[in-house]
Amino acid sequence: MNGSNELKKILFCGLESGGKTSILLLLDKKFSLLPTVKPTIKAKRTFYTNSLLGTSIVRWDLGGQKGYRKIYLGDKSKYFTDMQSIFYVIDIQAPKKFEEAIRFLNDIINVASESHPENFQLLILLHKYDPDVKNKKETIDRLNYLENQIKSAIKDIKFSIYRTSIYDEPSLLKAFSDGVFYATHKSKMFESLLKEYMGKTYNSSMLLLDQNCFIIASRTTDESYQKICEAIAPRLTQALEKLEEWDINTIDIVTNVEFSEKQSKYQKEGIIFLRKLDISNTRFYLIALCLNKKVKIKSYEYLPLLADNLKNLLESFD
Ligand SMILES: Nc1nc2c(ncn2[C@@H]2O[C@H](COP(=O)(O)OP(=O)(O)OP(=O)(O)O)[C@@H](O)[C@H]2O)c(=O)[nH]1
Ligand SMILES: [Mg+2]
């Protein structure tokens, strides 16, 4: 599981029309193909390589029509073995199919656990959680219903639940990063650099992203700070890349923020900054949340050291 150059298998499953193929197209930034997406015929395999982490994966997009589902469940040695992660996609805008979706999820868990219990990561995407429906009561009720159903249906294996939409790219970048990079050998090495940097600068939350905004490492003192960083990082990098299109060299983007009392017990003010780091022809983004100006000053002071350490780490991979 930790070997860096092996080909890892990642499954995308769920009922028909849940959004699996669209998710993959979005992650590959094939935006123009999104409106033309057709139901997937059986299983479609595509490859993805992250050169930074030396990760090569093969993604199995399992078309979700009823007839195909039977085929997958009946041939577990082909479909449900040796996978690192299973992404299970549920369309939250199709309540009539919820029961069927939970049933298929159960079937998959049963089949997959027989071959290797505990050994794969299960990521459940409550998908089509679009920005324009997320605050509706109907949506909140559906999410509560589904989360309860899932929690009572899954007993013996670990899983994580995500709320995603193709209209909220950061939500999918986060889920995919977790399913592919989390706890890999190289990701842990990047993480130890962040830990060292955090120890010197007293940042409250930090993410290291690759050029496509996949999260390759993170450290945080508080889960909610991390969520804030995850949600805005891809948006800030977009602004930075836009400026670069005008040949403006943008070193960083800094935002001064004020927390409401609910969000932060101790501090009201903070700074979030995004910094690009171009190291050995590799683009990284660092996003950090600092709870006062001194922390920000320290963060900038130690950036050259972090950059040096990143450079050394990259060279050690060669
Ligand atoms: N509103 C909304 N629609 C989405 C989202 N993701 C996908 N869709 C739409 O859902 C429909 C089905 O998407 P697909 O990607 O083909 O679904 P699939 O899970 O691959 O379906 P099968 O291949 O039949 O299993 C398409 O019309 C997509 O545009 C989303 O986040 N929000
Ligand atoms: Mg499909």
Plain-language structure description:
This protein has 318 residues and is of the alpha/beta class. Helices cover 42% and strands 27% of the residues. The chain is built from ten helices and eleven strands. The strands form two sheets. It has a six-stranded mixed beta sheet, with helices on both faces. Strands 8-7-11-10-9 form a five-stranded antiparallel beta sheet. α7 crosses α9. It is globular, with a radius of gyration of 20 Å. The mean pLDDT is 91.
SSE topology sketch:
Blueprint: E1 7-14, H1 20-27, E2 43-50, E3 55-62, H2 66-74, H3 76-79, E4 83-91, H4 98-115, E5 121-127, H5 137-153, E6 159-164, H6 169-180, H7 185-201, E7 205-210, E8 215-220, H8 223-245, E9 252-258, E10 269-279, E11 282-290, H9 293-301, H10 303-317
Parallel strand pairs: 1-3, 1-4, 4-5, 5-6
Antiparallel strand pairs: 2-3, 7-8, 7-11, 9-10, 10-11
The chain binds guanosine-5'-triphosphate (GTP) and magnesium ion (MG).
